[in-house]
Design brief:
Length: about 70
């Protein structure tokens, strides 16, 4: 695995960490699954610089929508 790929994966894992802290009522495994699904959407794309930011934005919307009231 290239260093750039490894850095992206670390950044995506940090997204899981941030969302788990922000939405403690949502199971971390569910958050991780959502983030993985969103990250998968960017697979094969050439420009990778903003992938973690885009993943976080879309995953946050999904997690927020399932957060218990």
């Amino acid at each position: 695995m290239e260093e750039r790929e490894a850095a992206e994966l670390r950044s995506v894992e940090e997204v899981v960490d941030r969302l788990a802290v922000k939405y403690p009522d949502v199971d971390r495994a569910v958050i991780a699954e959502i983030v993985a699904e969103e990250h998968h959407e960017y697979e094969g794309r050439r420009v990778r610089d903003f992938v973690p930011v885009l993943v976080e934005k879309s995953a946050k919307k999904r997690v927020k929508a399932i957060q218990p009231a």
